[in-house]
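The pair is set out directly below:
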Amino acid sequence: MGILHFTNGTKAEPLARGDCFTRGDELFRWPVVTDGMRQAVLDVLNSFSMSGTAVTDQFETEFARWTGAKYALGFNNGTSALKTAMYAAGLGAGDELICPGITYWASCAQALSLRASVVFADIEEETMCIDPDDIERRITPRTKAVMVVHYIGHPCDMDRIMPVARKHNLKVIEDVSHAQGSLYKGRMCGTLGDVAAMSCMSAKAFAIGEAGMLVTGSQEIYERAVMFGRIEHIKDVKDPELLRTAGIPMSGEKYRMHQMSSAVGLELLKDYPARIREIDEAMNYFADAVDQLPGLKVVRTAKGSGSTMGGWYYPACHYRPEELEGLSIGAFTRALTAEGVPHCKPGCNFSLFEHPLFFETDVYGEGHPVNRVPAGMDYPVCNRIHERIFSIPWFKHPDKTRIERFIAAYRKVAENYRELLPLDTFKNEHYSLTAFTPGLSKLFENRRKNATV
């Protein structure tokens, strides 16, 4: 009989119940719904102003003040906010948008409906963010903008990205969906590029329902964003060329935020800085201990750098099998699960360049793929990252006594990993977070099988 529960040993001390993400025990539960939020929503309902703009206008003002941006616009979701940011930055027919190969699809797929193409760049393994050096390798005469994603709360290396963008006259769009409140060297993520947009749906750190936000310091970008899908703010538009289309949004779509979401947002802004400080304390306490174990290093910013992880949305841990005699991540995470650690999954978002939409799908019946990009591109980090990263608990409160129980489970597995070596039959598995999309795991599995025939 071994020491690990996976090898028929004893189980670790009982851990907090829940999915280690947003549900279950208070240690993980998110978002925190307050009486103030409930009353604010009732006020919107009782005033019959669900489709109005007064509450949203107020929220936009307060959100801009919090971030330090000159302008803020509320949207019905993050997807439309990001699409509007692309249009406002000048992306259009025949242009190219550079985007990291590992991110959620809404960071870039909307570019296709603007009749632009998406060119993927590799990521840096340490930060999980776009590789600034690879951005320059992907630039062509058609490149118009770069989408930088502050992935899982970690800020991108903007000091290296912005000079490349300015050298080539490119706009920089920040996707802040994972990083509301994250700082880059003391500056708020979302105020570092030309324009930023983000999702604020209920699983995110800044969770106000199905909603999105756009922020910018540029009057030109703001006016283009207003005319594209938020024409309620047309009074702010000065450009006569834009005003020629007044009365109909240029997108042909209406993107305004539902006022129940903006009402929740106003209340959340009161507490959010304090709440993410609690999360930061809890996650760093956990990470300080886990980083001492062989083969493990939590993804986070360096202490003393002035950069922070914001609300630590979807926290993750690097896995280094070379420090554990080649033990696969599948065996390691299964052993953690056996010790009672829930939501312990290998991989991250799937590599978007593997999806047929981006290399073979003819969306508009034109006789060619909608995304027209050069063939033969390589993404070495993206291709190996799924076997070197896994999700960890998202602690919302610094309850150190209870967090210590999770640390004990990680320590138990890491210090007794040799018990797992003879049982490791998981080295050929492929991991990514495709379980959220039915059929996607099977599609990628079949594609990999065909590639080896």
